[in-house]
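> call design_seq(struct)
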């Protein structure tokens, strides 16, 4: 009996000195899961953007850190995860495998192949979220990135390291401009990355087929988060594409990245934020939706030591409304925009670029001198022509100067039209724009302008090949070259 009393008193003494503690290490449990977003308790030391592992090897990433729980987006089939499922922290930030073997492949935002080809071997990993390079590490945009489209390269030039927004209604040719630009980089030492966000799988397959048929997949990587994929994958897709671009930029390469499109990206982020019960603001978007795109697009730059990333984000407008929340956000982040208009598109002007509302804020410094010389006043003249043409509809008789300006504007508009997937080399663009801006097309019937362009470029290639090669090499027109070109145009017109 005394032994029992002694044991009891010893136990009581130990219990009095015991303090209860909850062990919060690298294991937690799912408290709640819905619409691809899990709320987890017990992972107090988790970092933002850290990968977590659910049962069955399904991965997630922490994006909401609260005092007593963590919000994580599930990067896979969330229907296989239930309340009470165990979650493990991995002590690894969300990153994507990068290597040269990605070129020519179609992958998902986690780096897994979608094209049915062999597994992609990668040794290096780049974080999907990364702080953009500072001012000291950047250098000004001075090298051109040619799109192969006369209307853009002459009036809204793009430079390597620039961010140029392509904006317009649905079905106005936004993706077509991006694909033309990718096709035009063939043989120009510029790698291309096309990020498809929320697109139909059939549309992505069509884009892959188009790029293959034009030999452009040899310098292109496609990152696809299709419409059928969870919002979590659509949310990380552009960041994954940008991480791949940064890998090649750090190796000294020039990269062009297309985000098609950031409207659907904002929708995916809104969906995730609403499920996480973050406070919503205008149009139910969370308060940090501006930062969502600014931290992505600021990563596009031209490094002092290294390569460059040129970004072409795409935004879809509703009924031509440029004052919407997401359009105004992205316009203020980028270095200019190419605005495509439905009315122009349906009237047969393609690419349907509204010259008045389109601008390139830094690309002018990158434009080749030959194009600057011939297209200096083109944008202003076309703007004036549009105003005069609108006014002329209500005027019964016009003075000769106004009529001449409208006639030339009609011919220049016709000249700037271009078929899809037929990019033109910039030297040839400069030759034909020279003919148009100097009035050599004024007496050519409007219906024969396209034929004049085709035959004139053939004539220059065959009869004046040495002259064309010299301009291509020099990148500018000397006074002697201008006189020679004038003579060549006059000689051709006699035969046309």
């Amino acid at each position: 009996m005394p032994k029992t009393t002694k044991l009891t008193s010893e136990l009581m003494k130990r219990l009095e000195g015991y303090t209860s503690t909850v062990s919060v290490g690298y294991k937690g449990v799912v408290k709640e899961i819905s619409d691809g977003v899990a709320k987890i308790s017990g992972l107090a030391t988790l970092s933002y953007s850290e990968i977590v592992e659910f049962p069955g090897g399904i991965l997630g990433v922490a994006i909401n850190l609260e005092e007593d729980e963590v919000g994580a987006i599930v990067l896979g089939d969330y229907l296989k995860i239930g309340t009470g499922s165990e979650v493990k922290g991995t002590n690894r930030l969300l990153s994507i495998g990068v290597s040269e073997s990605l070129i020519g492949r179609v992958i998902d935002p986690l780096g897994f192949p979608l094209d049915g080809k062999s597994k992609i071997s990668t040794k290096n990993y780049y974080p999907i979220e990364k702080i953009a390079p500072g001012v000291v590490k950047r250098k000004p945009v001075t090298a051109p990135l040619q799109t192969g489209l006369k209307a853009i390269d002459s009036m809204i030039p793009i430079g390597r390291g620039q961010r140029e927004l392509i904006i317009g209604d649905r079905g106005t040719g936004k993706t077509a401009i991006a694909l033309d630009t990718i096709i035009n980089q063939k043989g120009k030492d510029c790698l291309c990355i096309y990020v498809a966000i929320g697109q139909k799988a059939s549309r992505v397959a069509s884009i892959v087929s188009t790029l293959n048929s034009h030999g452009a997949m040899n310098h292109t990587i496609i990152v696809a988060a299709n419409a059928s994929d969870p919002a979590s994958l659509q949310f990380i897709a552009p960041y994954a594409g940008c991480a791949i671009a940064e890998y090649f930029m750090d190796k000294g390469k020039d990269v062009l990245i297309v985000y098609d499109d950031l409207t659907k990206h904002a929708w995916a982020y809104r969906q995730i934020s609403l499920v996480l019960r973050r406070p919503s603001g205008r149009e139910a978007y969370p308060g940090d939706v501006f930062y969502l795109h600014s931290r992505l697009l600021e990563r596009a730059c031209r490094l002092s030591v290294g390569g460059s990333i040129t970004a072409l984000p795409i935004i879809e407008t509703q009924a031509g409304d440029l004052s919407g929340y997401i359009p105004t956000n992205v316009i203020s982040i980028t270095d200019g925009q190419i605005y495509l208009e439905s009315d122009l598109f349906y009237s047969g002007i393609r690419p349907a670029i509204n010259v008045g509302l389109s601008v390139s804020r830094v690309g002018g410094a990158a434009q080749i001198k030959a194009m600057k010389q011939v297209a200096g006043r083109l944008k202003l003249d076309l703007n004036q022509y549009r105003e005069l043409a609108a006014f002329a509809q209500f005027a019964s008789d016009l003075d000769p100067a106004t009529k001449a300006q409208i006639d030339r504007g009609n011919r220049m508009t016709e000249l700037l039209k271009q078929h899809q997937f037929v990019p033109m080399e910039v030297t040839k663009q400069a030759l034909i724009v020279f003919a148009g801006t100097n009035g050599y097309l004024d007496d050519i019937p409007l219906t024969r302008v396209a034929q004049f362009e085709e035959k004139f470029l053939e004539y220059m290639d065959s009869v004046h090949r040495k002259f064309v090669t010299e301009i291509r090499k020099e990148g500018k027109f000397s006074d002697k070259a201008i006189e020679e070109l004038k003579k060549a145009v006059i000689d051709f017109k006699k035969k046309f």
